[in-house]
Every structure is written in structure tokens, then in C-alpha cells.
Design goal:
The structure is a single chain. With 174 residues, this protein is mainly alpha-helical. Helices cover 72% and strands 8% of the residues. It has helices at 5-20, 25-37, 43-50, 54-66, 89-117, 126-151, 154-173, and strands at residues 41-42, 71-75, 78-84. The longest helix has 29 residues, at 89-117. It is extended and about 65 Å long. It starts with a helix and ends with a helix. Residues 22-80 form the HTH marR-type domain. Keywords: DNA-binding, Transcription, Transcription regulation. It comes from Denitromonas iodatirespirans.
Length: 174
């Protein structure tokens, strides 16, 4: 399969953005490819399309599966494993946000709570204790807000985001 110029640009850019977000470039490119193609692909086809090593494709697909962004599927008449991703951008967004929360935010909240519950907290100065408390409150507030937003239907969430932008413009003008 040969990518057309716009698809190629999208896949390459998604790989660049992935590396800026802390995701391996190949992982991001494979996900972008599966998203754009909109159909299951087998590893060899992914390898040939993107021009990356078979082992890299294999490892990248495993990582995407661990993030629940790619699922294994089978195609009638073909014994090879195929891989697919959601075509729903909102579903992908939710999956990524929840995955990052589970991997990054939840452990941080746990450490902050442990720090505040530690008998050694008394050894820290009042300003340090306050900063840890403030960080925990902020992260809990942001987490609660994001969880509520993710429960909304996509069209409702879009309306809220657009409304938020309008409110922000009013605040800036006032």
C-alpha cells in the first residue's frame, strides 16, 4: 500500500507529535496509519507501508494494544493477525486520556497522599507541606473535572468547550 501525499504527511506528523508527547515515533505512526486507513491491517502490510522494521512493528503493536488503542482482529480467509483501531476520534481521545491518567496522574496522586500521610511530614517546613497539599488539591480538582467531562457525550462536550472559549473571550474583554 502506498500512502497518498496528505495521508503520508499526517502519518509523519503524528509520529513527530508522538515523540514530543513521550510516545515512540513508530508507535504513533502505526496508530495514525490504522486510523486513516480505517480497516484492519496485518503487520507485514504496516511494515511495507511505513518502511519500518518488522520487529519495530511488532513491538509498537504490543504497546498500542497495552494502551487499548489497537485491537487484534481476524479477516475471513486470512490466517494472519490483523490490527484495527477506532475510527471515532472521541473514543480515541477518551482512551488516551484515561490511559495517561492511569499511568501518570494516579501514581502521582498516590505519592502526594502518601507524603501527606507520612509521619515524616512534620520534618518538612510549613511552606513545603502547603505546596504538597496545594498540588494534591489541584490535581484532584483537575482529575474530577476531566472525569466528569469524559462522561459527557461528544456533542455535549463540544458545546461546553465552545461555550468555555466564548466565556474566556468575554472575560478577556471585561
Amino acid at each position: 500500500m502506498e500512502l497518498k501525499p496528505v495521508a503520508q504527511r499526517f502519518v509523519l506528523h503524528w509520529g513527530e507529535m508522538g515523540s514530543r508527547w513521550g510516545v515512540n515515533r513508530s508507535v504513533a505512526q502505526i496508530h495514525a496509519l490504522l486510523y486513516l486507513v480505517g480497516r484492519p491491517m496485518h503487520a507485514e502490510e504496516i511494515q511495507e507501508t511505513l518502511g519500518i522494521a518488522r520487529s519495530n512493528v511488532s513491538n509498537s503493536l504490543k504497546e498500542l494494544q497495552s494502551w487499548e488503542l489497537v485491537r487484534l482482529c481476524h479477516v475471513l480467509g486470512d490466517r494472519r493477525d490483523h490490527f484495527d483501531t477506532s475510527a471515532d476520534v472521541w473514543e480515541l481521545f477518551r482512551t488516551i486520556v484515561l490511559g495517561r491518567k492511569r499511568r501518570e496522574i494516579d501514581p502521582t496522586l498516590e505519592v502526594l497522599r502518601d507524603c501527606l500521610a507520612s509521619p515524616d511530614l512534620a520534618l518538612e517546613d510549613a511552606a513545603a507541606r502547603k505546596r504538597i497539599e496545594d498540588t494534591l488539591v489541584l490535581m484532584q480538582t483537575l482529575t474530577g473535572w476531566s472525569e466528569e467531562m469524559l462522561r459527557l457525550k461528544p456533542d455535549t462536550l463540544m458545546k461546553i468547550m465552545k461555550l468555555g472559549a466564548k466565556i474566556q473571550n468575554l472575560v478577556r474583554k471585561g
